[in-house]
Design a protein that fits this description.
This protein is α+β, with helices and mostly antiparallel strands. It has one domain. A four-stranded antiparallel beta sheet has the order 1-2-3-4, covered by helices on one side. It starts with 5 loop residues before the first strand and ends with a helix.
């Protein structure tokens, strides 16, 4: 079974897309890596995808500045996803 990716965030260093795989929506991040093949990852949630592109983990969200940055980025990406 094949599925196409709907890329909805197209930035210079990364992209985020969604696809339906075996009846389940997943989110795909693609990060450009200089002089190497791009890194492509599949995430179960949009939140996980945004955490990846922000280079953050759950512990980072305890820092107010990082949490604010993440929340703004999640809001921006969610808006693009919903169209």
């Amino acid at each position: 079974m094949s599925s196409s990716v709907n890329w909805f965030v197209l930035e210079e260093e990364y992209t985020i897309g969604s696809a339906n795989v075996n009846g389940k929506d997943v989110f795909i991040t693609e990060e450009s890596i200089r002089f190497d093949a791009p890194r492509v990852m599949i995430h179960e949630t949009l939140r996980e995808a945004v955490m990846q592109i922000c280079s953050l983990d759950e512990d980072d969200l305890e820092i107010p500045e990082e949490k604010e940055y993440f929340e703004e980025e999640l809001k921006r990406v969610t808006k693009k996803y919903k169209g």
